[in-house]
Amino acid sequence: MPIEPIRTTFQIQLLSHEQLNRLQEATLTILEEVGVRFPSQKALAIFADHGALVDHDTQIVRIPRDLVRRAMATVPRYFNLGARDPACDLHLQECVTYFATDGCGVETIDFETGQRRSSVKADVERMARVADYLSSIAFYWPMISAQDFGRAAPLHELDASWNNMGKHIQSETLMGEVPARYGIEMGTVIAGDKDELRRRPLFSVVICTIAPLAQDKEGIEGALLLAEAGIPVGFLAMPTMGTTAPSTFAGALAVGDAEIISATVLMQLAHPGAPVFHSLMEAWADPRSGAYVAYQAKARCRYAQIELAHHWGMPALGGAFGTESVNPGTWQAAADVAMDPILVSLVGTEIVTGLGLNRSYTLLHAESLILDDELYHRARNTLMDLEVDDNTLALDSIRAVGPGGHFMAQEHTRKHMRTMMEMGVTHQLGPDGKYRDPLEVAREKVNWILNNHQPEPLEEAKRAELSRILAAAGRELG
User: pLDDT tens across 192-203, in order?
Assistant: First the structure.
């Protein structure tokens, strides 16, 4: 199925240039005066070699602002994300927004039995096939984890994805030097050689920072290896206002941004020009219970983060969808996410994650991906250019019908009527002539895709090589 990204001819700006400058200045101050903890001797050595102030006892690095600016000047503003099917390559650019599924959930509602259970690799395979079919999905986050493969699960998620779809894969679980090395080896098999993998990276990786103001050893050392191979790496900060970040949007943005920029600086010092993207998703700690609440922070943070990333000259990975509702098809499930794809596109996000999971990104109902696909295409159609030309103005038909007439008999009407309105899951007629339950329609669509859509299979030699790599990784990782 061809990819249909959201394209806009205009954008909105939510923050002023002055506000963006102040946020950026706050980040520079935090990096220079407070610092970020890097629990990695490799990272500390790179920073020390380039003139940062490194305290080896506390592992805190303070980075002078001139060093930050020099390093950030080498970050590419746009780059490409390759795919097994070259027709699905993503060329990051202005006014085009590509969406992905959400991940990496740990539970699923079994599609056959309806029982709630832990996710396994077979679930990753099934959902990869569904995502491959949907034109809303431009790249794939493995939606659930392959928990039946332990520490090697991230590699099995890559294997399940490449064997069941032709689109770009973005892993958010590939952490550490050993898994990264195996991931690069698997990507090289799919691409054909290392140079082709660098030219058209078939996967990318998201590395989470640790709030407040710390990095993960495995994450940062794996990222260095990936950056060396030309694999795009994104750093995702997830500050929670009131606990791991100040209880104000601006303060939380500054803390999260400092985490992202510190890691980006490290990548550029080690490998200038390495493709890196910026991602920041704030949440809110409910003061009554301490519970993690994501939707409260969406409006101000999710879109401000994108403008802040662009202010640094970086592409942004935005967040959308991800309802806190446990059940699909409810009012809350739609209300939590309905505006997301429109706003995140209008502020110019290059790539966005989020379709298909419930209960704050942890629970998979397969039907939810179809319902989110519906919301996505409503947003895409809303932002689509209005075609105004001789054909769409239909003046000849208007003259022929005249006042008080009817357009049904016109050839122009017959030509365009079937394509003007897309009949989504909410407008499917039943035998009684009434609209059917959208959840029932969504379930049927998942079932149809699984029974009928067969992505182009991997060559047998590549499948065998992936199996060999997975076996070696299993022995080393346990």
Answer: 999 999 999 999
**Beta carbons of 43 and 266 less than 8 angstroms apart:** yes
Strand partners, 233: 205, 276
Phi and psi at residue 351, in whole multiples of 5°?
-135, 150
Query: What is the rounded CA–CA span in Å between residue 187 and residue 159?
Result: 10
Question: Whole-angstrom Cα distance, residue 342 to residue 340?
Answer: 6
397 within 8 A of 415, measured Cβ to Cβ: no
Q: Is pTM, for the whole model, over 0.90?
A: yes
Q: What percent of the chain has pLDDT over 90?
A: 78
Q: Averaged over 207-233, what is the pLDDT? A: 98
Q: How far apart are the C-alpha atoms of 95 and 97, rounded to whole Å?
A: 7
Angle in degrees, 0-180, between the axes of helices 177-191 and 460-477, rounded to the nearest 10: 170
Domains and CATH numbers, the chain: 6-11+75-383 (3.20.20.480), 17-72 (no CATH), 390-452 (no CATH)
| pLDDT band, very low/low/confident/very high, at 297 (cuts 50, 70, 90) | very low
- Map tokens 């780059």 to a residue: 79
Per-residue pLDDT tens over the stretch 350-374: 999 989 998 878 899 999 999 999 9
**Mean pLDDT lowest among 127-131, 143-147, 309-313, 436-440:** 436-440
